[in-house]
Amino acid sequence: MALEAGKGLSSQSSSSRMGFAPLPLRRRKSLGVSNGSRVTMMAADVVDKPKKGSKEIAKDTLLTPRFYTTDFDEMERMFNTEMNKNLNEAEFEALAAEFKTDYNQVHFVRNPEFKAAAEKLQGPLRQIFVEFLERSCTAEFSGFLLYKELGRRLKKTNPVVAEIFTLMSRDEARHAGFLNKGLSDFNLALDLGFLTKARKYTFFKPQFIFYATYLSEKIGYWRYITIYRHLKTNPEYQCYPIFKYFENWCQDENRHGDFFSALLKAQPQFLNDWQAKLWSRFFCLSVYVTMYLNDVQRTAFYEGIGLDTRKFDMHVIIETNKTTARIFPAVLDVENPVFQEKLENLVTLNKKLIAIGESKAPEALKSLQKVPVITSFVTELLAMYLMRPVDSGSLDFVDVEPQVVY
Ligand SMILES: [Fe+2]
Ligand SMILES: [Fe+2]
């Protein structure tokens, strides 16, 4: 899964001015072990409390990366080849073969540059980096948990699809492990075993898992590749070596997205009617707005690596939207200047909500103060949702091949 899949809108933790939402970080040593291809992540290593020395888990907010669960019985029915004749087994077998090739088997190998670079990062930028690693690790780990469970549950019904999920969970474990190892450069580690148990799981029915995960993988691809290309052209901002790994890393996310594209095609009911169009637009809006609100609150991070946050986000949104238009039956008109104007209005309203949340006023008064702001927020969102959409991909659009850059 990608950097920040995210879901939902609104305010967030008051733990710092940056709005950081710290997770159960502990001083050294990580659960995720990243050592080239042999990365393992012990999801079953469940504990009652964060390991000794960990920070308390922070309050979850609507903008923190989420953990998902779904209706696994419905998933089993959907991938039963007897029941679903739309399953293109040859396509899934080809995808499975590609995943088995494991292009990035030896990609995620660390070197001494990491620790040295982390030591040079001091002051506010250091804290921002820690938060970036923390959030990214959580998002990747969330993908690992979901895919691993899907791999397990679909084994009997559809071994090929199950195998792909398991291989994708391998990739996500590797990504999360690599990020967690990055935290060790800052003498911290995420207690992933605790996180597995302590986090609330958001339930999405399979249809919504497909939309949300497809978008999350593709947006992750565009985020990684954009940062990678930017730092390649502007090496003076290359302040931590993890970004050098993004070129191959993002190809994993791209492949994951292509797999979800194949899954969606096998469920034409999710793509071919007016409800599918409405849901597609809803998920696009939800994912884009969440990312924008999250990132604008963290401009220091993007500026720290020489990016203009808003330009970066708009580029990612536009490109993701173009990619998504190949498969979703409708997408948003994100290139319309009104869309960005409204995004900015949401930023202002979100700031107001945070300020109210952080004020010392009594809770009842705060709730009252929030009402008009939330009303405006919802009105803006609705206006964005109702903007004339862009009709896009359909099942007739057969040119949705995995885009492998090797
Ligand atoms: Fe990933
Ligand atoms: Fe992924």
TrEMBL record:
From the record, give the transmembrane residue ranges: none
Q: Which reaction does it catalyse?
A: Mg-protoporphyrin IX 13-monomethyl ester + 3 NADPH + 3 O2 + 2 H(+) = 3,8-divinyl protochlorophyllide a + 3 NADP(+) + 5 H2O
Task: Report domain Rubrerythrin diiron-binding positions.
Answer: 131-264
Is DNA repair tagged as a keyword? Answer: no
Looking at the record, which segments are called Disordered? 1-21
Keyword Metal-binding (UniProt): yes
Q: In which pathway does it act?
A: Porphyrin-containing compound metabolism; chlorophyll biosynthesis
Cofactor requirements of the protein: Fe cation
Keywords (alphabetical) are:
Chlorophyll biosynthesis, Iron, Metal-binding, NADP, Oxidoreductase, Photosynthesis
Enzyme class, one word? oxidoreductase
Which SUPFAM superfamilies does the entry link to? Ferritin-like (SSF47240)
The EC code for this enzyme is: 1.14.13.81
What Pfam families does the record point to?
A: Rubrerythrin
Task: Point out the coiled-coil segments of this chain.
Answer: none
Protein family: Belongs to the AcsF family.
Q: Which PANTHER family match?
A: MAGNESIUM-PROTOPORPHYRIN IX MONOMETHYL ESTER [OXIDATIVE] CYCLASE, CHLOROPLASTIC
What is the name of this protein?
Answer: magnesium-protoporphyrin IX monomethyl ester (oxidative) cyclase
Organism of this sequence: Sphagnum jensenii
